[in-house]
Design goal:
Layout: E1 12-17, H1 20-26, E2 33-39, H2 45-53, E3 71-75, E4 80-84, H3 95-111, E5 115-123, H4 130-141, E6 146-151, H5 158-172, E7 179-183, H6 192-202, H7 206-217
Parallel strand pairs: 2-4, 2-5, 5-6, 6-7
Antiparallel strand pairs: 1-3, 3-4
The structure holds guanosine-5'-triphosphate and magnesium ion.
Guanosine-5'-triphosphate (GTP) binds near residues 41, 44, 62, 68 and 185.
Length: about 220
């Protein structure tokens, strides 16, 4: 079956790399589909990956911002991968180190051809900071679909949560259908079915579905 739903619980750790040169060395190549999780340090990227894959310790989480300093890649299947990117915007690290991560992040985003979708995670209490906007604008320019995920939504009451979601939707509406906005809680699992459905869609770009169908017929 070429259009079956991806079981995100199957995710397996594949590789940690300081930059994309290492990815190219250790992966079959810049092929298939990668969905990357980006966001400020402490936004909840690693926690979201663990919740979505139902694995407590797939990605390392931490109370200390700046925990994910490498590009961590997880395989869903032979053709699809999830990527936990180093967080940005974290002030309390030495400048040289910060530059190194930001360079790795920028290079991944600019040069990784198999990047097929970008999840931009933002704490629902502090959404749309400058670097988040830059990230979203950049992806839209490159025709990469974006999911703006408003994390830690368990920290707000339902009314405040929906107010922020609506405000962010309004701000990002100019970008069109390529940018979606959803609330999420890794703690409670809120928003999980919706997110999985969006990621599943990104896992099935037309070109891959067609290639797999052709391969099946051969
Ligand atoms: N209440 C609540 N806390 C959360 C949620 N998601 C993450 N956290 C907490 O936020 C902190 C940071 O979470 P991480 O998942 O490590 O954040 P990250 O974006 O991977 O951070 P870096 O790796 O430093 O870039 C941890 O203390 C988590 O327990 C959530 O949905 N609700
Ligand atoms: Mg992390």
């Amino acid at each position: 079956m070429t259009d079956s739903r991806i079981d995100f619980r199957q995710a397996k750790f594949l590789i940690s790399a300081p930059d994309i040169a290492h990815l190219d060395e250790h992966l079959p190549g810049d092929v298939g589909v990668e969905i990357a999780f980006a966001g400020r340090s402490n936004a909840g990227k690693s926690s979201a990956l663990n919740q979505l894959t139902e694995q407590k310790n797939l990605a390392r989480t931490s109370k200390t911002p700046g925990r994910t300093q490498l590009i961590n890649v997880f395989a869903l299947d032979e053709h699809r991968r999830l990527v936990d990117l180093p967080g940005y915007g974290f002030a309390q690290v030495p400048l040289a180190m910060k530059k190194k991560w930001q360079q790795a992040l920028g290079q991944y985003l600019q040069e990784r051809a198999c990047l097929s979708g970008l999840v931009v995670l933002m704490d629902i209490r502090h959404p749309l900071k400058d670097l988040d906007m830059q990230m979203i604008e950049w992806a839209v320019d490159c025709d990469i679909p974006v999911l703006a995920l408003l994390t830690k939504c368990d920290k707000l009451a339902q009314s405040a949560r929906m107010k922020t979601v609506n405000e962010v939707r309004k701000t990002l509406a100019d970008f069109g259908d390529g940018v979606k906005v959803e609330p999420f809680s890794s703690l409670k699992g809120t928003g999980k079915p919706k997110v999985l459905s969006i990621l599943n869609e990104w896992c099935h770009p037309d070109w891959l579905v067609e290639a797999l169908a052709d391969a099946e017929q051969e």
